[in-house]
Amino acid sequence: MPALENTEARPADPADTAAIFREWRLGGLALKNRLLRSSISGRIDNYDGSGTPARVHFEERFARGGVAAIISSHVPITPAGRVLPNYAMIDRDARVDFWRTVGRRLHAHHCKFILQLSHSGRQQDIGGVENTGRLPAGATSRPDFFNGLRSRAMSEAEIVGVVELFAAAAERVRAAELDGIELHSANGYLFTQFLSSAINDRTDRYGGSLENRARFLLQVIEAIQKRVGRDFPLIVKVTGHDRHNAAGLWPRPDGNGIEDAIRIARWVEAAGAHAVHVSTGSMFPHPLNPAGDMPVEVARRTYQSIIASGRRTFRNYLGFRYFGRLVRWLWTRKQPFWRGGAIDPERLEGFAAPDAKAIKAAVKIPVLLTGGFQTSRGIGRVLRDGSCDAVTIARPLLANPDLPSDLRSGLNGPKYRPCTYCNKCLLHVLEHPLGCYDEGRYPAGPEGYDAMIRDVFEIFSDYTEPTT
């Protein structure tokens, strides 16, 4: 029993379809269309950071659906910097063969694979048993304001060591015959903790001015290129606006704005990056990333997994459990795409396009944009008006992995019911396999629920080597 059909799907404007399915280049990488799967994944690997067949199936599902490239979930460069356990890592040479297998599976579908190198810094939701009793290394010793997640500020010598960890991981990406690297310098992870004026409180040469706050990122880019060369495709994900003040009741500094993002984009272009990927928010999750609802009914069940991780997590858990309506209001009150208590999909889709357009006007390298895309009209609009060169998609592909094929066929949206931006996938991932948990996309009753769970568990089917 599949998801219900999308009865509102209409033919697309041919000009939008043509814009989406034009070939383009990211550095020396030829891409078959303007659709990329952005970073999204769940706890589907082994606890020790080795990969599983489920990971292979997960990535291959989107390659079959027709995206031009997949940007992996965050791939830790060290166990000390992983966000959650059960994510495949690239912290040692023994990981290379697994990632080579993933890449070859995707290449069989003419899909490129770009590995996102990551370090959590203080944004470590569940550090894993090997990190018990240790604070992760970060830019600051201050806890984040939402969960109260903590780190200890790295010394300059430790920063040099982390730079080398990124460089060694990049060399493994090339050895695995993958197609490129993304540095996740947005959404609150380690690079953001250095870059953001709302987070970085350092007084050494890595703090203060934006030039100093960007030093760590630029040193990593330089170190990577020494190992893999300037021609190896490199994407840098940046935050257009931190919007650090978007959640909670008490005012706080808003952090970096678009002028800061433009300067950072210019610097990474000059350093040799081949594309900039524009996102929003100084943490993850953030009220504007992923934009949409706050499913407090799911949070009541799964958020308890991280109660021990931060100073404010127990407070948050009590909020989800007893004051769900207030929490939901606080989370969504500054989102500009709600009308009459419901999300307006057209206003949400590509809402950060002005940030991308401002950055694109300032650089010559391609600009990628994320933001709830799932219609030809919404994607075509930002491509045709010059806001970006390509879009990246996460939740709508999780709901409909065949979305690119549906759009190529001339539909304006997916064949089956679209993503509703309910964000149940986001909260489920703390304990459960990543998938679309929106029961409203399936027939009502137990059979529809069972069909939804079968879709979620599809990635755990038996693994077979390709016959080609």
Structure at a glance:
The chain contains 18 helices and 14 strands. With 468 residues, the chain is α/β, with parallel strands linked by helices.
Give a topology summary.
Layout: H1 14-20, E1 24-26, E2 29-31, E3 35-37, H2 53-65, E4 69-76, H3 96-107, E5 112-118, E6 137-138, E7 152-153, H4 156-175, E8 180-184, H5 190-195, H6 210-213, H7 215-228, E9 234-239, H8 258-271, E10 275-279, H9 296-302, H10 313-322, H11 324-332, E11 338-339, E12 342-343, H12 345-348, H13 353-360, E13 367-370, H14 376-384, E14 390-393, H15 395-399, H16 403-408, H17 424-428, H18 446-456
Parallel strand pairs: 3-4, 3-14, 4-5, 5-8, 6-7, 8-9, 9-10, 10-13, 13-14
Antiparallel strand pairs: 1-2, 11-12
Helix pairs in contact: 1-14, 2-3, 4-7, 10-11
List descriptors:
468 residues, TIM Barrel, two-stranded antiparallel ribbon, 35% helix, globular, disordered C terminus
Shape: globular
CATH 2nd-level architecture: Alpha-Beta Barrel
Mean pLDDT: 94
Percentage of residues in helical conformation: 25-40%
Report the top-level CATH class.
Alpha Beta
Spatial arrangement of strands, main beta sheet = 3-4-5-8-9-10-13-14
According to DSSP, the number of beta strands is: 14
**Strand share of the residues?**
5-15%
Question: What is the count of helical runs?
Answer: 18
Give the C-alpha Rg: 21 Å
Reported by name, the CATH topology is TIM Barrel
The structure class reads alpha/beta
Largest sheet: 8 strands, parallel, barrel
**Assigned CATH superfamily:** Aldolase class I
How many structural domains does the protein architecture include? 1
Terminal CA distance reads: 30 Å
